[in-house]
Amino acid sequence: MVNPQDAAFILQLIAGMIGELPCPDGGDASGGGVTDPLDAALILQFSAGLISSQSP
Q1: What is the rounded end-to-end Cα distance, in angstroms, of the chain?
Q2: DSSP string, the chain
Q3: Considering the entire predicted model, what is its pTM?
Q4: What pLDDT shows up at residue 26?
Q5: CA 42 to CA 17: how far, in whole Å?
Q6: For the chain, which residues score pLDDT lower than 70?
């Protein structure tokens, strides 16, 4: 289950505050091959019910 905490973990990783994600395989929400701020944004939008799991 994805939630806003997952987005926070991604942003902490990008900022260098943590060395790895608790679930490294789940960070690439966009399917772009990297974990980046877009993934955090998509997770937050999904958690808020603004997009479906089929997006983007």
Answers
A1: 18
A2: ---HHHHHHHHHHHTTSSSS-SSGGG--TT-SSS--HHHHHHHHHHHTTSS-TT--
A3: 0.88
A4: 85
A5: 21
A6: 54-56
Q: Please tell me the distance from the alpha carbon of residue 19 to that of residue 50, in angstroms, as a whole number.
A: 30
Q: What is the pLDDT of residue 24?
A: 83
3 phi, psi to nearest 5 deg? -150, 175
What does the pLDDT read at residue 4?
96
CA distance 51 to 34: 20
Distance in angstroms (rounded) separating the CA atoms of residues 22 and 5 = 11
CA distances from 22 to 14, 18, 19, 27, 51 (A): 14, 10, 10, 9, 24
